[in-house]
Design goal:
CATH architecture of the largest domain in chain B: 3-Layer(aba) Sandwich
Largest interface: A-B, 68 and 63 residues
Structural class of chain A: alpha/beta
Helix content of chain B: 25-40%
Number of strands of chain A: 14
CATH superfamily of the largest domain in chain B: Succinyl-CoA synthetase domains
Strand content of chain B: 25-35%
Oligomer: heterodimer
CATH superfamily of the largest domain in chain A: Succinyl-CoA synthetase domains
CATH architecture of the largest domain in chain A: 3-Layer(aba) Sandwich
Number of domains of chain A: 2
CATH class of the largest domain in chain B: Alpha Beta
Shape of chain B: elongated
Distance between the termini of chain B: 29 Å
Structural class of chain B: alpha+beta
Helix content of chain A: 25-40%
Low-confidence stretches of chain A: none
Distance between the termini of chain A: 20 Å
Mean pLDDT of chain A: 94
CATH topology of the largest domain in chain A: Rossmann fold
CATH topology of the largest domain in chain B: Rossmann fold
Strand content of chain A: 15-25%
CATH class of the largest domain in chain A: Alpha Beta
Low-confidence stretches of chain B: 266-305
Largest sheet of chain A: 7 strands, mixed
Chain lengths: ~300, ~550
């Protein structure tokens, strides 16, 4: 088991003919993801690395039913930021239940409209501004690892679920865990923005219900309330698996955004200290230095 | 989130049908007098600055004559908020406030939708007060939940006659926020009152103040707002931040984020004192024999008051983690920079040039997540070019872990042979803490004088008639033809099949259109040719505003 993605999921790529689309198709195919189709308006009939391209998600859906024995499970959106809203809503309306929004700089009102559409259709989305999700040894959606051979070398299968607000640190966290002999069930980069589809507490609930996952690792950041919301779930007894966290931005000052759209302390809310305190009060292990993460995870797993 | 000043936000509210006090901004006492004269009656003069609690710092005054308005304007225009002078004041008619309400719209990340806070009493600290505050649900498409709004008003002791006007104001706040893609709108107070100069009897709902921020990522859809730099900073943008922002706008290959956090004239200690105190170099043998514990004590004592470091992160989270690592070692970073998302070599080069435009740096520290999905050699080429051009003479420690890290480190460290500085590259298996420690040792052991920004060096064939020249996006390439017969093999070997030999002269092997976008490959060619002892290719990259 794993969460969100595995080798059985049928995946399409919106924007497959673009620069990023082509590069990430190679990664996904190379890693073993079941990519059944791609979409780019006006490019229907072409192929990218053997994957058929359609103008519309609806057509890709029909293709998937006919040739891949079922509905599309996931669409990975790799179009320029200003077209993300249209692409995501098209996929959601065509019946895709999980949309992965990779692009950075998606306007927040667009993200909220995508959220409203997802709610209407009982769908979910990861991102925007996500590097994607990878279940080591199974499949990847998005661009974690960059290249299939790197992804295979860096990430080991295992029993730890990783949730990160940073793309690079998703890879980094899983890599250093792997070096310490700890593998991962799924690595989920929830995204760097303030309005996200799958938030840290949502992903934690999925890991809670995943039999393969024995512990949850969080790379959190200043800003927003996701870490505090996770702490609440832990206190309510809804997340009972051990949680180990690192929170970035201890040296950040209020009122300045630190790169990620969501990484800003406003009105004294979303501080490093506030998040550490909330998580510790809920029983999580919060490490001071990122380098201490693998050791702390090893401890909560009982040293095995 | 680009912030708007009070008067800018109020103008947007007025467009949406809000009542705002009559008034205008002034940049001089004379202008303030004119505005007050035209208003004709008691006025309020307010500084236009990004701060809360303006009253407490003397930024708000009530005046009863144009002369008094001019006097207050003169005083306020001499004020500074933080390090920044007040440039404008707003002069408005005085509103006789009968009652103060509060409306604020914000983006609720848990609900993934806007939410409106409505309170029946104004003032600061509204979130803490709790009682009487309504949190109204909004649908991003249709607006505020009307049933919740009705219930909130019905519960209140507001007069019946004024309730529809308050409801209108709440709806208008949503409309303004949606139209301009605001991340927040705050009207505090929303006044129920009479505008004194009009001698009106009827109570009106008036926006007496307004704070609004616009989503950075939507600014491109709102050129009418005149936002020059869509970045949330705690200060108005500096010259370098403006230059950096322009680069980011012109090149969307990857991300480049640059914010200045500290600068020399803000730093408490004169750098000469620091240099005096840190003039004892540490020998290599000492390093090897000292125990880790002794090192930690020794190092922290040595670093407690280190001056500024140029910081170059990669990836939002990795940059933040690296910033924490370097500051927890006692350093102060001059700037926060992030180049990531597979940035072009040109973008990383320009980032390095901007970082090295800050005086007083004792070193250049680069680190990201350490396990980057992007191909790291492009970043290495960008850094190698910048370090060579500036003849770097302060230490640089760069963690280039991730895809193609071996090649990246080799490229970066090749610059050691060409500049006075020690430049060290590190990989994914080198922990940030060890690298920060190494950086501190290099700084303490080698820096005699802090960094002085300088003009980049340029080869003598740049601009020469004999050089072969062609344009690329954001610049141009020069190739020295003087000894082409003996250098062409090297150049063509590193030119990624973009160049060729045409009867003893260099020439393009692809169309002008195609080569224009190959700036990264050409930067690689320049760096590789220099490494190979044939420094005959130079990519001149423009950075507008950086002299």
């Amino acid at each position: 088991m794993a969460i969100l993605i595995d080798e059985t999921k049928r995946v399409i790529i919106q924007g497959i003919t673009g620069r990023e689309g082509q590069a990430r198709t190679k990664l996904m195919l190379g890693y073993g993801t079941n990519v059944v189709a791609g979409c780019t308006p006006g490019k229907g009939g072409e192929e990218v690395q053997g994957v058929p391209v359609f103008d519309k998600v609806e057509q890709a859906m029909a293709h998937s039913r006919e040739h891949a024995a079922g509905d599309i499970d996931i669409s990975v959106v790799l179009v320029p930021a200003r077209f993300v809203k249209g692409a995501a809503i098209e996929a959601i309306e065509a019946g895709v239940k999980l949309v992965v929004l990779v692009p950075d700089r998606v306007p927040v009102w667009d993200a909220m409209e995508i959220a409203a559409a997802a709610k209407d259709h009982d769908a979910r989305f990861v991102g925007p501004n996500t590097l994607g999700v990878i279940s080591p040894g199974k499949a990847v959606v998005g661009m974690i690892g960059g290249r299939a051979e790197s992804a295979k070398a860096w990430f080991k299968p295992g029993n730890v679920g990783v949730i990160s607000r940073s793309g690079g640190m998703s890879s980094s966290t899983a890599y250093y865990l792997g070096r310490a002999g700890i593998g991962c069930s799924t690595i989920c980069h929830v995204g760097g923005d303030s309005v996200l589809g799958v938030r840290i507490p949502d992903a934690a609930l999925m890991f809670e219900n995943d039999p393969q996952t024995d512990a949850i690792v969080i790379f959190g950041e200043i800003g927003g309330s996701m870490e505090e919301d996770l702490a609440r779930l832990m206190i309510e007894g809804k997340v009972t698996k051990p949680v180990v966290a690192y929170i970035g931005g201890k040296a950040a000052k209020e009122g300045t955004r630190f790169s990620h759209a969501g990484a800003i302390i406003e009105g004294g809310k979303g501080t490093h200290a506030g998040k550490v305190e909330a998580l510790e009060a809920a029983g999580a292990t919060v490490v001071e230095s990122f380098g201490d993460l693998p050791g702390a995870v090893g401890s909560v797993l009982g040293g095995d | 989130m680009a912030r708007l000043h009070e008067h800018e936000g109020k103008a947007l509210l007025a467009e949406a049908g809000f009542t705002i006090p009559r008034g205008s901004v002034a940049a001089s006492p004379a202008e303030a007098r004119e505005v007050a004269e035209a208003l004709g009656g008691p006025c309020v003069v307010k500084i236009q600055a990004w701060t809360t609690g303006r009253k407490a710092i003397g930024g708000v005054a009530i005046v009863d004559s144009p002369e008094a308005a001019a006097a207050e304007a003169e005083r306020m225009l001499g004020m500074s908020v933080g390090a920044f002078p007040v440039e404008k004041v707003l002069i408005e008619e005085l509103v006789e406030i009968d009652r103060e309400l509060f409306i604020s719209l914000y983006i609720d990340d848990a609900a993934r939708a806007p939410r409106i806070l409505l309170s029946l009493s104004g003032g600061s600290g509204i979130e803490e007060r709790g009682a009487g505050v309504h949190r109204l649900t909004c649908d991003v498409r249709s607006g505020v939940d009307e049933a919740e709004l009705d219930a909130a008003l019905a519960e209140s002791d507001l007069e019946q006659a004024i309730r529809p006007k308050v409801a209108e104001a709440v709806r208008a706040v949503f409309d303004v926020a949606k139209k301009h893609e605001a991340r927040s709108v705050e009207i505090n107070p929303l006044a129920i009152g009479r505008r004194s100069a009009l001698r009106a009897d009827e109570f009106e709902v008036v926006a007496a103040d307004c704070r609004m921020t616009i989503d950075d990522y939507a600014v491109f859809r709102h050129p009418d707002l005149g936002i020059e730099i869509a970045r949330e900073l705690d200060h108005p943008p500096t010259k370098l931040e403006r230059i950096a922002y322009e680069i980011e706008q012109a090149d969307h290959r990857g991300t480049f984020y640059f914010a200045q956090l500290n600068w020399v004239d803000r730093h408490s200690e004169p750098i000469s004192d620091w240099v005096d105190r840190h003039s004892e170099p540490i020998s290599d043998s000492q390093e090897e024999t000292t125990t880790a514990a002794a090192l930690a004590t020794d190092a922290s004592a040595r670093r407690a008051d280190l001056p500024l470091v140029g910081f170059h992160g990669a990836g939002g989270g990795g940059s933040m983690m690296s910033m924490d690592a370097i500051t927890s070692e006692g350093f102060t970073i001059a700037n926060f920079t992030d180049t990531s998302g597979n940035p072009s070599a040109a973008k990383v080069y320009r980032a390095a040039r901007i970082i090295l435009s800050q005086p007083g740096l004792v070193g250049y520290f680069g680190s990201g997540s350490g396990v980057a999905s992007q191909e790291q050699f492009w970043s290495a080429y960008g850094l190698a070019k910048a370090f060579w051009e500036l003849n770097l003479d302060i230490p640089a420690v760069i963690r280039l872990g991730g895809n193609s890290e071996d090649r990246a480190v080799e490229i970066l460290e090749s610059v050691n042979d060409l500049v006075p500085a020690t430049i060290e590259g590190y990989k994914k298996d080198d922990p940030p803490r060890m690298i920060a420690d190494r950086f501190a040792r290099l700084v303490a052991g080698s820096v005699r004088e802090p960094w002085k920004p300088r003009r980049p060096r340029v080869p003598d064939y740049v601009g020469a008639d004999f050089a072969f020249r062609f344009e690329i996006t954001g610049g141009r390439v020069w190739i020295d033809t003087r000894d082409w017969d003996s250098t062409k093999a090297t150049v063509l070997a590193h030119a990624a099949e973009l160049l060729k030999d045409d009867n003893g002269r260099p020439a393009l092997a692809v169309s002008q259109d195609e080569i224009a976008g190959k700036d990264s490959e050409l930067i690689a060619c320049e760096v590789e040719c220099r490494r190979a002892g044939a420094p005959v290719v130079f990519v001149e990259l423009d950075i507008r505003g950086l002299d």
